[in-house]
Amino acid sequence: MADTASSAPRPFSKVIIVGAGPSGLLLALLLSKRSIPVHIIEASHQLDQQPRAAHYGTPAIPEFVRAGIIDKIRDRGLILSTMCWRSPDDYSYIAGFNADVLKDVDGQDLRTHCYVLQDLDQLMLDEALAHGATIEWESKVTGTGQDGDKAWVEIEGKGRREADYVVGCDGANSTVRKSLFGAEFPGFTWDAQIIATNTYYDFEGKFGWHDANFIIHPEHFFMVARITQENLYRITYGEKPGLTREEYIARQPEIFKKILPGNPEPSDYKLVSISPYKMHQRCAPKFRVGRILLAADAAHLCNPWGGLGITGGFVDVGGLYECLVGIWDGKADDSILDLYSEKRIEKYQTIINPISQENFRRVSDKEPATRFERDDFMQLLRKGETDKDFLKELLLGFMDVRYDFTQHYKN
Ligand SMILES: Cc1cc2nc3c(=O)[nH]c(=O)nc-3n(C[C@H](O)[C@H](O)[C@H](O)COP(=O)(O)OP(=O)(O)OC[C@H]3O[C@@H](n4cnc5c(N)ncnc54)[C@H](O)[C@@H]3O)c2cc1C
Fold it and tell me: pLDDT digit string (tens) for 388-404?
């Protein structure tokens, strides 16, 4: 059947995306695949190389499928099947699950996929550029503006760029968000410090550990999760707040010796990268003001325990894509963007924010020995160990983070 919508004059002609992080690059890829002109503006001269996201949960998988990159992610990265929480005394198993029940959900493998962020970013950038997206590096956006016909960004030393819509995908310190709401970013910052490392250490071969492991402790909580096929693991651990980056780096060997199984010396592992992070739970008042939109970390933040950060950000991007395509195809007017703001904020407040908070409280519990007795989620997982249908339903519950904006398209 002929696509009559696509031959009609288009209601807009260009989208500017601020930020070549994972959210901006996925949006650029999705839009450029639909032949919607998109221009990315990035402050840095290169993609971010810090150890950040690596694991993308079940709700993000349909976006990788839609972007046409799921096969490459599977070939180059890996899939996490087993995950558990462990006791700090002897690392014994407390509760966990095997996500293989999500291996084939109506033909889709919805298990958590893993591919280190800088490699995923490079993949999405290459694909977006191949589909016609353009990018300006070393271009720091300092402000935004809009009138009835267009929106624009001001770039330091380079002047103004205009489009019909500007999307702020510029991360936690978003200039686009600040241009709309100033310092207002409601929520809180945890009084805690975490250190993320990428480290080669054979947790599976030497200790039989799962793909992802959370060791519960009030101070020395940590996470160990495989991030490459070659035994590279993300080890993220708690530290005392208030030290300098240099002090954290100097303390790392002693901490690894103290907390990791086998009490390793530096010669027993290979540390590839290390970076301290603060953690926040915050959400912007709106994700849309006229022609300016926000997505992912620019719009909302959560702690990384449980990998809900960019997983939720990718779901935002998929929703925003559906809204913009609806407008582009004449199937929606731009009030659908108000719905984008309303529904994505609702999903953050009712799912991402409470679940991510609980994830951190679980791993940093003051009484690890009794956590299981007080933890409904862990007890449901215990039930799921023997009832696979129940486990599948439980894990698929995370798909509620998604929202289908195409249901609001005009017939
Ligand atoms: C240790 C750690 C582990 C994590 N693990 C996970 C995980 O496993 N799974 C998960 O889902 N999430 C995880 N997260 C969260 C995840 O990394 C973030 O949610 C994600 O990086 C946010 O992507 P983004 O595109 O919104 O912003 P960013 O990744 O911050 O990218 C923003 C981009 O915008 C650019 N920019 C900023 N300001 C400007 C400006 N003024 N002008 C132009 N460009 C600008 C920046 O240079 C950058 O390239 C983790 C976070 C941390 C800290």
Answer: 999 999 999 999 999 99
